[in-house]
Amino acid sequence: MADKIKDAKIIFVVGGPGSGKGTQCERIVAKYGYTHLSSGDLLRAEVASGSDRGKQLQAIMQKGELVPLDTVLDMIKDAMIAKADVSKGFLIDGYPREVKQGEEFEKKIGKPCLLLYVDAKSETMIKRLLKRGETSGRSDDNEETIKKRLDLYYKATEPVIAFYESRGIVKKVDSELPVDEVFVQVSQAIDSLKP
Ligand SMILES: Nc1ncnc2c1ncn2[C@@H]1O[C@H](COP(=O)(O)OP(=O)(O)O)[C@@H](O)[C@H]1O
Ligand SMILES: Nc1ncnc2c1ncn2[C@H]1C[C@H](O)[C@@H](COP(=O)(O)OP(=O)(O)O)O1
Ligand SMILES: [Mg+2]
Asked: Which residues does UniProt assign to the signal peptide (predicted)?
């Protein structure tokens, strides 16, 4: 099982909260048929299940903090194994959020061929998240938690981009632009991958 995943295309999708990762992933799924796995969505599904573990996760996420590495990585790995037979490639959205997460992923699962860096200004991300918060029902889309998520992004997640830049696999897209125009850049990044 794990061997099958090793041969699959793995794309990390990294960017600040509200930068537009989920939006672009949806478009990628529609055009390229890749499997979209969002660490945040997997965690929210666990919260929705009402399990004890879900309750612990909810408390952490509401504070804008990172849940334990092993929890997220196990969830992603299980979801990848479940799709290994049918997937043309995996979009790993919202992971890694710190360099250590990337290192552990590579030890346990495999190497990414691309890191898609979805870049937007912090003012833009705040504006989008507050707007999303009007309808998302997400307990972390409020002003106080947004500020914490942004701080943590700059502190813990930006170093992830530098880490993979040294490996030459980072493609940055300008997510200040309208969704369609961002997706033109995303498509170019994906089309440039070797088969
Ligand atoms: N390029 C864009 N221009 C304008 N609004 C955008 C753009 N990309 C995303 N949004 C909006 O910003 C919000 C956050 O996008 P989302 O894809 O959920 O971000 P993330 O998954 O990175 O948190 C959503 O409400 C989305 O509709
Ligand atoms: N890889 C990861 N490691 C630790 N915590 C994570 C995680 N991915 C998500 N979480 C937790 C903490 C985040 O603040 C919360 C929401 O994540 P998300 O849905 O990816 O946010 P967004 O798409 O707005 O960037 O879930
Ligand atoms: Mg998202």
From this structure: none
